[in-house]
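Chain X:
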Amino acid sequence: MDAIRRQAREPVVPAGADEEPGEFDELFSERGHWNERPAAWGNPDGALEQSQFFRALELCLARLPGRTAQAFMMREHLGLETGEICKELEVTPTHCWVMLYRARMALRECLQQTWFGK
């Protein structure tokens, strides 16, 4: 019975979602930071100071699934550790890492189109 309850609380992550290297894996270090900033982005400090950037970021965050956006904001805005995020969202560490990866990729693509690609 406990296994059924746990399975209902923990969303199913597709087999191999965290094992197979994706097309974007080489862009990030082991710690999840960019290996090399995309050339078209220029200086992100200047972009962050502009209110239009924050509006574009908010629009991109709104396009993410709710829990994925929440995990991203908990990690990047609030600076929470994986364990804290997992406890709050009731997910496994593996699922948390998958959600953060997907959030980063979706935000990168969205910002590339709506902000940096202008």
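Chain Y:
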Amino acid sequence: MARCLELAAAYRGRTSPNPIVGCVIVDKAGKVIAEGAHAGPGKLHAEAAALAKLGNKAQGATLYVNLEPCTHHGRTPPCAPLVRDSGVARVVVGIEDPMPGHGGGRALLRRAGIAVTTGVLREECTRANTPFLTWARDRRPAFTLKAAVTLDGKIATVAGHSKWITGPRARADVMRLRDEHDAILVGIGTVLADAPRLTARLPGARDPIRIILDSQLRTPPRAHVVPGRNRRSARTIIVAGPAAPATRERALVAQRAEVWRVPAHRNGRLDLVALARRLGEEGIMSVLVEGGGEVHASLLEKRLADELVLYVAPKIVGGPAKSWVGGKGLASMQAAIAFELDAHVEMLDGDLRLTGRLKR
């Protein structure tokens, strides 16, 4: 099953709105005879890719897959009947398929007399497909909050200097995260202060969709994040409130940016729950949130933050510099938003990489 997850991970960020799935087929002697992975929408599912290498016949073999074989006919035929007809004797599944109308693969296989085991490396399989499972359950993407901070939790000095808090290895790891997510989200403050490109600057990487929270459409039409004449530039979505000036929208659309209007609250802040629903409708399953602090605070307040990646540099700047989470703050420790941190902590040339998930 661990090998299934390894195969699946190679296509992280490429399969939306489908899950990442890997498959390993083992013969009666325990030898691996075929492997496969789902490479993206419209392409063979992992089980089909592996069985195709065996002429769709695997008599007496054991098939491992991290997600239950589906019974749904979408862009490709369902996997469960193919597995049933292949002659395998046993199927080992990581987790069940939660999509309505997609499950039932285990039952179909059992009715055919095939032994089915479920729940192998369940926690690891669940974590690997957090975006898909969140999208299937809540019809919205999974949001991962990312920040590079000092030991005292700051994202810049009191003078606003932020380059560079962390070292080259940590920054390269951020590029990997961008490559693995469907989209990257920042607030207008970040765009105006840092003029970011929000690209994944690694060999072979693909740039995520860029989402800018900009209630009044203050994004300059010539900003780096706006596609303009660059036909190879990633898609850019600028999210505005109902009252944003139409003249600004036209100027941005003329530079090939998309402008989405979403409801706004009385305080003028955008309705992030409504935005999350619309992103889900677009088939966007994973969003990397790179701030700033007010954006992080808003997502935490709405319980939309699913995962956390913090890069902590061994530096202290002190003073009233900006923190990676803004907002009004909470009055009691009992009201604090809790995360469950992973036991594995990675060191990246002196910088600490912490990961975790929101406790629900």
